[in-house]
From TrEMBL:
Pathway: Glycan metabolism. One of its GO terms (cellular component) is membrane. It comes from the Eukaryota. It is a single-pass type II membrane protein. CDD domains: O-FucT_plant. This is O-fucosyltransferase family protein. Its main location: membrane. Transmembrane segments: none annotated. InterPro entries: FucosylTrfase_pln, GDP-Fuc_O-FucTrfase.
């Protein structure tokens, strides 16, 4: 009974089966816990107060106290590990945001490249936030590449932060508006000056908050724009639109391979199936090939001109030169037979048969596919814009650049090479060339005379300084801004002398 009574003293009524400490012991334990809690709380408050005070001391003591004095170990690390300098970014431009501009580019790589430059300039002028442009995925090439697959998107955004705010995507609230259709979409009018965007486009942005421009090619005028707008177009093109590190590195590798074997000429040979079908040019093609190209042209509804007289178009100089014609021209221009000829183009229509004249005259004809291993290009296959980016880089660095047709790449590369110091670019006069070629092939013009005339015609067509042609009310016929960005060239005295 005594044991049971003693045990019962340690039980608390209502706590069946739960052992409790005697009241005195419990009180002591609670007192100790309270003291410990107070000590911890006091210590935490003191440490936090010290930290705040140290931070408030400012620049004199803060870095030393908070970061610590250098120890022997940190001194050794400082001697062996270089400290990467943080990139200096331009200060953000502070302005009242008038809304958001979304753009969907159309066309090939260089058509989109020029359009992106225009859209940045327009966004800057209108004080709107630009969303990283969407690239064309529905054109003939069906390239699924996104902006960040071709261009260094982080560099694009940060390098322009002093001019315009650029976001990768709309803020959540604005994205919700777009998802429910609360935005406006339209194609702007081609070749418009900046007043059109101020008077017509800006009110739409302010009204709808988000404006989507669904076509962007050739939407800004070549001439008659403020100097700061023209210079910003150049800054974007030659500074902010860098290709991705992977594309840049592969381009440098191709250039190194070419340089090991001496000087090289880049031939932008626009004799691909899509170009021939679009232009309706069939010089040198078989009847079956001509029919195939015609069927292809009719298959694409946006290639509006259907019935084309290839003979007349060629005589007027509106067809890309054939491989046979360009072989004669290069020989007449006295390009050394041992010169490396890099073909910047897609698959040549007609293959080896059509290339035979050129490879016979110039045996060192190469392409990226012959200079690189298949594994190097594995990730670029079926991505025509990324392949074109490689050709663009090689074209810029070539000793001579020769485009056989005045498409977007030819024009943009021409302008970029002018910007780089008027690097030699042979601008072929196709109308005169086809006439001379036909006379030579018919036997009415001897080779010596043919060669002399070709050199004479092109003596002043080597990419040197010249004034951009202005044709009021006919912007499509005047010189293209990106082919000759004279406002941005580094030696204005050359322009004054031209």
């Amino acid at each position: 009974m005594g044991c049971k009574a003693a045990a019962a003293m340690g039980l608390k009524a209502g706590g069946a089966g739960k052992l409790r400490l005697p009241s005195v012991v419990a009180a002591v334990a609670r007192s100790r816990m309270m003291k410990l809690w107070v000590l911890r709380a006091t210590t935490t408050v003191l440490l936090w107060t010290c930290l705040v005070q140290l931070t408030a001391v400012g620049e004199t003591w803060g870095p030393r106290v908070l970061m610590g004095w250098p120890s022997c170990r940190t001194a050794r690390l400082a001697m062996t590990e270089p400290v990467a300098e943080k990139a200096v970014l331009p200060p953000r431009r502070i302005y009242r945001n008038n809304g958001y501009l979304m753009v969907s580019c159309n066309g090939g790589l260089n058509q989109m490249r020029a359009a992106i430059c225009d859209m940045v300039a327009i966004a800057r002028y209108l004080n709107v936030t630009l969303i990283v442009p969407e690239l064309d995925k529905t054109s003939f090439w069906n390239d699924p590449s996104e902006f960040q697959d071709i261009f260094d998107v982080e560099h694009f955004i940060t390098s322009l932060r002093g001019e315009v705010r650029i976001l990768r995507e709309l803020p959540p609230r604005m994205k919700q508006r777009v998802e429910v259709g609360m935005f406006h979409s339209m194609p702007p009018i081609s070749w418009s000056d900046i007043s059109y965007y101020h008077n017509q486009i800006l009110p739409l942005i302010q009204k709808h908050k988000v404006l989507h421009l669904n076509r962007t090619d050739a939407r800004l005028a070549n001439n008659g724009l403020p100097l700061d707008i023209q210079k910003l177009r150049c800054r974007v093109n030659y500074g902010s639109l860098k290709f991705t590190p992977q594309i840049e590195e592969l381009g440098r590798r191709v250039i190194r391979i070419l340089r090991k074997n001496g000087p090289f000429l880049v031939l932008h040979l626009r004799y691909e199936m899509d170009m021939l079908a679009f232009s309706g040019c069939t010089e040198g093609c078989t009847r079956e090939e001509a029919d195939e190209l015609t069927r292809m042209r009719y298959a694409y509804p946006w290639w509006k001109e259907k019935v084309i007289d290839s003979y007349v178009k060629r005589k007027d100089g509106f067809c890309p030169l054939t491989p046979e014609e360009i072989a004669l021209v290069l020989r007449a221009l006295e390009v050394d037979r041992s010169m490396q000829i890099y073909i910047a183009a897609g698959e040549i229509y007609g293959g080896k048969r059509r290339m035979a004249s050129l490879t016979s005259a110039y045996p060192n004809v190469v392409r990226k596919e012959t200079l690189l291993e298949p594994s190097d290009l594995r990730f670029f296959q079926n991505h025509s814009s990324q392949m074109a980016a490689l050709d663009y880089l090689v074209s810029l660095e070539s000793d001579i650049f020769v485009p056989t047709y005045d498409g977007n790449m030819a024009k943009v590369v021409e302008g970029h090479r002018r910007f780089m110091g008027f690097k030699k670019t042979i601008l072929l006069d196709r109308k005169i060339i086809v006439d001379l070629v036909d006379r030579y092939k018919s036997g009415s013009l001897p080779w010596d005379e043919f060669s002399k005339l070709i050199r004479s015609v092109h003596a002043n067509r080597m990419g040197s300084a010249s004034r951009r042609t202005v044709i009021p009310d006919k912007p499509k016929e005047e010189d293209y801004f990106y082919a000759n960005p004279q406002e941005c060239l580094r030696d204005p005295d050359l322009l004054r002398a031209s």
